[in-house]
Write a structure and sequence with these properties.
2 copies of one chain form a homodimer. Chain A contains 9 helices and 3 strands, in the order αβααββαααααα. Chain A starts with 12 loop residues before the first helix and ends with a helix. Chains A and B meet through helix 3, helix 4 and helix 7 of A and helix 3, helix 4 and helix 7 of B. Chain A binds a DNA duplex through helix 2 and helix 3.
Amino acid sequence: MKTRRPLADSTAVHDQVYEAIRQALITGRIAPGKGVSLRSLAAELGVSPMPVRDAVRRLVAERALAINPANKRLSVPSLTADRLEQLSLARLWVEPELAARAVTRADTGLVRQLQAIDADLDEALRLGDVDRYMAANHAFHFALYERAEADVLQAMAGGLWLQIGPFMRVVFGRVGADVLVADRHAEAIEAVRSGDAEGARRAIAADLSEGMDKMRIAVEAIA
Amino acid sequence: MKTRRPLADSTAVHDQVYEAIRQALITGRIAPGKGVSLRSLAAELGVSPMPVRDAVRRLVAERALAINPANKRLSVPSLTADRLEQLSLARLWVEPELAARAVTRADTGLVRQLQAIDADLDEALRLGDVDRYMAANHAFHFALYERAEADVLQAMAGGLWLQIGPFMRVVFGRVGADVLVADRHAEAIEAVRSGDAEGARRAIAADLSEGMDKMRIAVEAIA
DNA sequence: TGCAGAAAACTGTGATCACAGTATTATGGA
DNA sequence: TCCATAATACTGTGATCACAGTTTTCTGCA
C-alpha cells in the first residue's frame, strides 16, 4: 500500500496524525480506558505506522495517552477522582491567568470571534450535539488564550485540556448536555470587550470551577 | 555497528536515551541555542537513530527541545526574558503546592534524604562544581515533590524544570556559582520535619523566587 | 586572493522488516 | 461442557534503507 502523497501541503504526516488523534481525544471520540494500537490507528487514518508512532510518542509525553508499563500497550488514561482534582487545580490557575493577559491585547475582532463561537456553541447545545459542543467550547477558550501571547502558559493549558477531554465527553455523554447550559462565556466576552482583565480572570475561573464541579459530581455518580 | 545489547535491564533504549538527554539538559551540558541532530546524538550515545528519534519526539513535546519550523532542524531553545517570566510564574505556582502536599506525607526518611542531598549540594558549591550543584539541586526539589504523590502536578514541574535547566547553567556558568549559596533548603527541611505544610510552601516559594530573580538579573546583564 | 557554483555531507521523515514478547483464539482431551 | 494447552494474531521496539531538502565544503575560474 503506497501512501506516499504529493505533499501539496507542507505539514508533516505525523503532525496531521497528531492533530487527528488530538481532536478525537479532546472531543472524546476515543473513550477513556480504551486500548489503541499503532497499527490500528495507522489503518484507520490510512497512513503507515511510522508517523503514528511519532504522534503517539508526543501524545504520551503530553499524558493524553498512557502506556501500560507491564505490557507496554497503549490506552486512553481513565480518569480518577485524584487526577481530576489535580487537573482542575492546574486549569484553575493557568487559564484565568491566560484570560487576563488576553484582555490587555484584545481588539474588537476578538470580541466578534468569541461571540460567533459562542453562538455556535449555543446552537450545538440546543441541538444536543455533544461533539460540536465540545469542539466549540475548546475553540472559545483557546481563541481567547491565543491572544495572551504566552506560549509557555498556553502550551500548559493545551496539555491540560488534552488530558481532561476524554473525561468531559464521558461525563456529558452520560449526564446529558443540558446540565452545562449555564456557562460564563457571556460574562467573559463582556470583560474582554470592556478591557476588564480581572473581570475576565474571574469569569473564566467561575466557568472552569462550575464546569469541573459538575464533572466531579458526575464522576462520583458513575464510579 | 551492532548496538544490540543483552537488555539485562528491561527499560527500553529510548527511555535510557531520553534520560541521558534530559540529564544533559537539566544540568545544562547542552547549551541553549545549540543545534543537535538525531544522528549526532545517536553516535554520541552509541545507539541507533531510532530510539533517539523517539526520545527527541518526547523532549520536543515537553518543549525541552525545539524544531525550527523552516528547516525542521533541532535545537535547544534559547531563553528569552518573556519565556523566563512565564516559566517563573508557573514554577512559583506548582512547586510550592507540591511541597505543601509532600509535607503531609513526609516521614523521617524523607528528612534524612533531603539533608543528605543538601549536604552534597553544599559541598558541590564549596568546590565550585556547577554540574554537581545543578544535579543536587534538582534531586533536592524532586525528592520532595515525589512525596506529594500528585503525578499530574509533578509532571508539570518536571516539564518546567526541563525547560529552564539549560538556562540556569548558562547563567550560573557566567555569573559564578557563588551567587546562589543562599537558598531556602534548610528552611524547607525544617518545615518538612515539623509537619508545617504552609511553611514548606513559603520556603520553596522563596527559594524559587530568589533563584529566579538572580536569573532574571543575570539574563538581562548577558542580553 | 576572492567568489560563484557544483559536489558532497548531513538533516528529518517515512516505509519496511525482524524480533520478542503478550493476548487472543483454536484445539484436543476429559 | 469445561478446561488446559498449543497455535495464531497482534503489540511495541529497534534497525535499516530511501528520499528530498538544506547546509557545508570543495573546486575552479577570475
